[in-house]
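Q: Could you predict the 3D structure of Alkaline/neutral invertase?
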Amino acid sequence: MFFTLNDPSHWAVFCFIFILHIDPNSLTMCPLRINGSPNGNVKTLGSAGTIFEAEDSDILLRIMERPRAINVSFEDRPSNELLSNHFECLSPHGRRSGFNSPRSYTSFEAHAMVGEAWENMKRSIVYYRRQPVGTVAAMDHSVEELNYDQVFVRDFVPSALAFLMNGEEEVVKNFLLKTLHLQSWEKMIDQFKLGEGVMPASFKVIHNPVRNREILIADFGESAIGRVAPVDSGFWWIILLRAYTRHTGDSSLAEMPECQRGMRLILTLCLSEAFDTFPTLLCADGCCMIDRRMGVYGYPIEIQALFFMALRCALLLLKQDQEGKEFIERIVKRLHALSFHMRNYFWLDLKQLNDIYRYKTEEYSHTAVNKFNVMPDSLPDWVFDFMPTRGGYFIGNVSPARMDFRWFCLGNCVAILSSLATPEQASAIMDLIESRWDELVGEMPLKICYPALESHEWRIVTGCDPKNTRWSYHNGGSWPGNEVSLLQTIMVYFELHYDLVRSFVFAVLLWLLTAACIKTGRPQIARRAIELAENRLSKDHWPEYYDGKTGRYIGKQARKFQTWSISGYLVAKMMLEDPSHLGMISLEEDKQMKPLMKRSTSWTC
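A: Sure. Here are the predicted structure tokens for Alkaline/neutral invertase:
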């Protein structure tokens, strides 16, 4: 039986089926087709030197799908053999996406946005002495550039993955080597010398008129908001080095003495012994993607997940020489402690939330249940309604007498890809996202964190930051995406249950979300997310983020032609076309690292 929503009788039957919650798995609907037009107002980058910076639809049927997680090893099998049986329907042609001739995708029409995105990517490339070394953060020349004319380490990661998937390895290799060279510089902020292993947040190519040659200028935090060094840059560098090695099959770059030394310097900073009683990494506010004061100081989930993934990547890259073996031994010990700590104390589900609600305080001795002396009265009201019966997530921060219950997207996605989350926890995270679409998606998905800080709390935590006002930028802002136009025409019943038919896109995080969806066996979520992105991203000139509680408005300070929005879309598109690309950015669970879970888990509900 075929359904068409253009037929009123079919529409009535469809509504009846949906309202009664009758399982419509036997029905077949025509695939959604979205036709996009290229944006003709693409701005070009004037200088090579830059710093780092329906018709008919099966969308409702796909919401009901709940595939099983994929159980494959990305370390032991060739990448071109991965997931072929699981995702035949996504890539029947088995060809690589061409840089100049983007090909069509099953379930996606050959979209003009792909070609436009690649053209913008080409324009964003930064050259140093005629060699490509990265991509500029944004190409919006209608406003003051500030530091958006730089090549940022974290921003370049999705660009690098897109280039690798497209067979353009040179720019990635050059980037890794240039940032490694910058790491060796002496780093001074005022009268204080930074650690030798600190990687730059960004760099810029400028022309020296005296020497008549191009030179690099790096920013290690001395020019950043709040003057905070980037903790995440070193982790992203190691993760990208592993992705390059995994994709190309060429280990010669990682085995270079300079790269081995660079990794060891980064690891020395992270594995050094101090006064900490936890295996997590202590950080200042503004040290990662959320680079402004947002109350993420302490042990933020984003840094802990990246730390865990970088350690696991380093295990695969370090040579088995005398120095390498010493670090490998330290990494293994830290990973065991870190995985136990994160899976037990950062994990929150309904049962654990109830346990915290009933905590006793002022407990002493080794038998204490409330080990961090968290006050039950400090639990925010919103978390009780936010937590679904089935689902869970890694909370934002855990430290003495403090739990930050906010949801942070990047940290939870990286936790899935690095296997910091167990398979059961990964599934629970996806359950939470699906259960709380309305809160995490809105009209312009996806929230970088939830909920937003408001009123007095906003003034105290952010210091009255005018850029991070409620539901804006890092404070609950939505980053590019949109709902499919078909959904705008659905009748009142569906408006009342709109959270059931939304998907989500966070263009800079879209590739991470897509990878997490594929790894957990839910590619249909990523497919819908990409369809949503294609409806508005190009029309809005690839903005950095959106404002408003539901993400309806382009951010008041958002840059247009944001490179990570463009590259995030491309990586997600190519990853769905060829899921074997997941092997670049995904690590399978280490069974030896799986501790006994002493706390309740949501998936047993």
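Q: Anything worth pointing out?
A: DSSP finds 20 helices and 17 strands in the chain.
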